[in-house]
Every structure is written in C-alpha cells, then in structure tokens.
Structure to design on (255 residues):
C-alpha cells in the first residue's frame, strides 16, 4: 500500500502537482490517467523517489519516505521495479544480461543464483528462448516483456510502469497489460501504471486516478468510470471517436 498525502511539486515557479491525496493498494493494478501534460510522469517519478517535492508526504507500507535514513531509502528503492516508457533496455547487453542487471546492482547473489532467477523470470514472461538475443533483435512487444522481467527480477513490492504499452498494436498491448496484472496479483505487488489507453482502463483498471492539471479530478474503477457524470472524465473517456460511436450505439439500443 502506498499512501499519498497532499503532494505538491513545482519546477522553479511552475506548480505542477497541486496537492494530490490518494492511495494505491497492494495486489492491485492502480492506473493514473489524464491528458498529456496533466502530471502523470512527474507523479510517478515522485512515487519512485526520483523527484523531491516541496510539500506533502508519501508512505510505503506505513514508512514515510522523507523520514527514512539514507540506508533505508536505498533499501526501499531496491524494493521498487520500474518499466520506463520505451522499455529503456541497455542496447549493448543481451536480454539475459539486461534482466540480470538489478541483481548485480542490489544483491550479493552468486552467478548461478542470478542465472536461475533470470531463467525463472524470462520463463514467466514467455521468453525462455531469448536469453542471448540483443534488444535490437527483439520486437517491441518482446522488449516490453524483457523490461517487465527486469522490473520484477528482484521481487519488488512496488512496480511502476510509465505507458507500458505505448507503441504496441492493440492486441500486443492487451497481452502486456494482462501480464502486468497477473504478476501484480501473483506476487501481491502494489502496481502503479501511467496510461492514456482506454483499453487498459477497461482491462486492468482496478483503481483509477484521473489527473487534470496536476489535481486529482476523480478516482474510481473500470466499472464506475463509464457511469460518472464528471465532465473532464467523460471528455477523456470519449475523446476517442470509436468510444463515442460505441456509446451512441449503446444509448440508442437501450432507449
Ligand atoms: N524536469 C522538468 N522540468 C520542468 N518541467 C517539467 C519537468 N518534467 C515535467 N515538467 C512539466 O510538468 C508538466 C507535466 O508533465 P508530465 O510529463 O508529468 O505529463 P504527463 O501527464 O506524463 O504527459 P504525457 O501523457 O504526455 O506523458 C508538463 O507541463 C511538463 O512540461
Ligand atoms: Mg508521461
């Protein structure tokens, strides 16, 4: 569980996050949605401890980040996995080396322990035969799976994903979303995902936080988002022509 209380973040004079209070539950896929520029990535970077903020607090399973010692902060960071936008794999390393990287950074495991764990997670993301490939030889969907394997290799308690399915075709995007949700459930991780994608909202939106101009405008779930009257949310949800048309058909059929 992550609890965010009255979080404010500025860059110089520009106030970006304007007092966000919410919580993200363990074992759930929590989504942050909102228009481009609404503050999703800045928020995620605050949750990751990459950005300092001037007001408010974030606690991770009861521990308030700013009250931790340097060592405790490092320990907490080692419990976080991250899937960056665009996968961000190391080009000069094989897929197996990419996945092993956090184990080398954060653990003192032996080579064979690390190899066993890499095998386990690559199998988990259905890439058991890809160890020796270079990232450039992998498709976009494969690269995302490698990024997910790397994010979970050190058994994180918290998983953060920034637009994990951007650039993928809709079918592959759903495979990636479902994989993240299954892993979240299986290992009881607190997962927070930034997305623009209404498919993700419908598939895996167990909790949804809607940001608008750095404020929490609405929160709910994939069930309640289609029923809310909140205009900012409905504008976002029905910004896609496809959704508008489906909704119109639905309303006409149910007259
Ligand atoms: N390092 C930074 N320095 C100054 N301003 C920044 C920095 N990072 C982000 N911003 C500003 O913060 C605002 C929110 O940006 P952010 O990247 O969080 O949006 P977003 O919701 O993730 O958008 P997108 O959906 O396009 O990824 C933007 O106005 C952006 O210009
Ligand atoms: Mg972003």
């Amino acid at each position: 569980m992550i609890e965010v209380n009255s979080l404010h973040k500025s860059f110089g004079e520009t106030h970006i996050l304007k007092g966000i209070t919410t919580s993200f539950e363990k074992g759930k896929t929590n989504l942050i949605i909102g228009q481009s520029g609404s503050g999703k990535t800045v928020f995620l970077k605050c949750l990751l401890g990459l950005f300092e903020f001037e007001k408010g607090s974030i606690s991770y399973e009861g521990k308030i980040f700013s009250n931790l010692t340097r060592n405790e902060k490092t320990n907490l960071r080692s419990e976080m996995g991250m899937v960056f936008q665009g996968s961000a794999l190391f080009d000069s390393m094989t897929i197996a080396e990419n996945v092993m990287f956090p184990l080398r950074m954060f653990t003192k495991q032996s080579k064979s322990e690390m190899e066993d764990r890499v095998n386990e997670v690559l199998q988990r993301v259905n890439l058991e035969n890809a160890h020796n490939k270079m990232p450039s030889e992998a498709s976009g969907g494969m690269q995302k799976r490698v990024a997910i394997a790397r994010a979970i290799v050190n058994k994180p308690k918290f998983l953060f994903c920034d637009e994990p399915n951007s650039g993928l075709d809709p079918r592959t995007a759903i495979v990636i979303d479902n994989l993240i949700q299954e892993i979240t459930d299986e290992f009881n991780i607190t997962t927070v995902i930034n997305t623009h994608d209404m498919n993700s909202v419908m598939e895996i939106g167990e909790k949804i936080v809607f940001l608008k101009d750095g404020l929490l405008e609405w929160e709910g779930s994939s069930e309640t988002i289609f029923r809310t009257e909140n205009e900012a949310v409905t504008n976002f949800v029905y910004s896609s022509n496809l959704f508008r048309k489906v909704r119109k058909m639905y309303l006409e059929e149910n007259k």
Remarks:
- The first strand starts at residue 2 and ends at 11.
- DSSP finds nine helices and ten strands in the chain.
